[in-house]
Design goal:
The complex is a heterodimer.
Chain A (H helix, E strand, L loop, with lengths): L1 E7 L2 H6 L3 E6 L5 E2 H11 L9 E4 L2 E3 L3 E2 L5 E4 L6
Chain B lengths: L1 H4 L1 H4 L5 H9 L2 E5 L5 H10 L4 E5 L24 H12 L4 E5 L5 H6 L6 E4 L4 H14 L3 E7 L2 E7 L7 H4 L10 H4 L3 H20 L8 E6 L5 E5 L4 H20 L1
Parallel strand pairs in B: 1-2, 1-4, 2-3, 4-5
Antiparallel strand pairs in B: 5-6, 6-7, 7-8
The chains are: A alpha+beta, B alpha/beta.
């Protein structure tokens, strides 16, 4: 089991009541970002209703892998103005 | 008066008289005359952008006044776009302002009879954000986009010289949005981001500096954290969308 730190933004910080959360996930070398997203939604089901964009080391990705130590961020679009 | 008014611009190597002349020949479409739109209009108008086109179908309310500081108590109930046009013209008589007391649609954007150089997305809902993206794609114009959620802000420039679009960043348009009216906002954050957007649009017009294309910049007003995230163009999706839109709107126009 490995612990990944995930930065959250906007409404996601309200759902998780924090701007950074830890996810305990089981993987060897790396985990797919979609799998990571599923883990996040499992922990915080309300996030299922929000469009989530995942960034690995400050690069948004729609697929691909993340590794232990990567900087992971999850971003929703904001609509206010 | 012109010489005196813009003399601080003339002193800047990146602007100068040539740059000021470029600004004075530019046309900018500002969509939304609220929290983000007000500073955008004030600074672009003051700076001598030749022609501002304003779209907003809303009226001024008392709850707007803390952040939409162009309006006063006497303006409550009046049209935001009309009042903004009048006030910015009073600041700078040398510019043209065309105000539309309605919310923008793609069709109306296509019917605007002037060549637009930059669009500023100062709206407060997702439907408008996606339609601005589509309009920009159709008329091949860059968009400076700002968005707020409580103390968080996002900024980016898209559709810049064929760069990624808003849909490359957030492809799913069917989602619930949270406007400032629902979740709250402190005025200075809207002012800060609106000013940032105005600066970014002037850089595009002046063809100077680094533009936030393919980069989503975030700011949190509580923690001071700035973050940059890069995103890429989804070439195939953009081309498909452009074709779909061109077909759809040409059919609408010509039956």
């Amino acid at each position: 089991m490995k612990t990944l730190k995930v930065k959250l933004f906007g409404v996601l910080t309200e759902i998780a009541a924090s701007s950074e959360v830890e996810l305990n996930v089981d993987f060897l070398e790396s985990i797919g970002v979609l799998e990571l997203q599923a883990e996040l939604i499992k922990k915080y089901p309300a996030m299922k209703l929000v469009q989530l964009k995942i960034a690995v080391n400050n690069q948004f990705v729609s697929d691909g892998q993340c590794h232990e130590g990567d900087i992971i961020a999850v971003m929703p679009p904001f609509s206010g103005g | 008066m012109h010489e005196e008014r813009y003399k601080r611009h003339f002193s800047l190597e990146e602007v100068g008289e040539e740059g000021q002349s470029l600004l004075s020949r530019s046309t900018v479409l500002v969509v939304g005359c609220g929290g983000l739109g007000v500073p955008v209009i004030q600074y672009l108008g003051g700076a001598g952008i030749g022609h501002l086109i304003l779209f907003d179908g809303d009226q001024v309310t008392y709850s707007n006044l803390p952040r939409q500081v162009l309006y006063g108590e006497g303006d409550v109930g009046g049209s935001k776009s009309m009042i903004a046009a009048e006030k910015i013209k009073a600041n700078n008589s040398g510019i043209a302002v065309s105000a539309f007391e309605k919310h923008l649609t793609v069709e109306e954007g296509l019917e605007v009879p002037w060549k637009i150089d930059v669009i500023l997305d100062c709206t407060d809902n997702f439907a408008s954000r996606y339609l601005i993206n589509d309009l920009a794609l159709l008329i091949d114009v860059p968009v400076v986009s700002g968005a707020l959620h409580k103390f968080d802000a996002q900024m980016t420039v898209y559709n810049y010289h064929g760069g990624p679009t808003y849909r490359c960043l957030f492809p799913n348009e069917n989602q619930r949005g949270f406007g400032c009216d629902q979740v709250g906002v402190l005025g200075p954050l809207a002012g800060l981001i609106g000013n940032y957007m105005a600066l970014e649009s002037m850089k595009i017009l002046l063809k100077t500096g680094r533009v936030l294309s393919g980069c989503l910049r975030t700011f949190n007003g509580l923690s001071h954290a700035w973050n940059d995230f890069s995103y890429e163009k989804n070439e195939m999706e953009v081309e498909m969308r452009k074709t779909e839109l061109a077909t759809f709107y040409s059919k609408k126009q010509y039956g």
